[in-house]
Amino acid sequence: MSATPEHTPARLRAIPSRLLAGAAAVGDRLVGERLAAEGAHKWHFAVLVALAEGGAASQAELSRRTGIYRSDMVAVLNALADAACVSREPDPADRRRNVITLTAAGRRRLERLDRLIAEAQRELLAPLAPAEQDELVRLLTLLTEGHRPPHEAR
To answer: How far apart are CA 87 and CA 137, in angstroms?
Structure first.
């Protein structure tokens, strides 16, 4: 049985990390449901965005750009390649690796997924006024950047 807000002790309801975890769980559920309805996953979206914004890349580079483990990246790329969203071609500079490129179908898929992600964000942030939404994003960015390990590029 999970705790309901009226039964949760006030001290627990005031812990920022607990509140962030709860909001993150809601956001993850909203995004996951919308993407799943389209046969997609958040990692598919991440790879398509990384290719659209950063250009063609190796599998290892895509892992760095997205934070997806290399071992998981293979399955993500297989699914995207099966859907003709990405192409894999041998790297002319190093024939042992492939260069992953976003296809026209991948761009169309990304446009659709962008709309679904935006819908989920609107639902998640609906209790907040537009200025509060902007402030929340600003504060979350500060928290995230402030706790990024020093070796990670900012």
So the answer is: 34
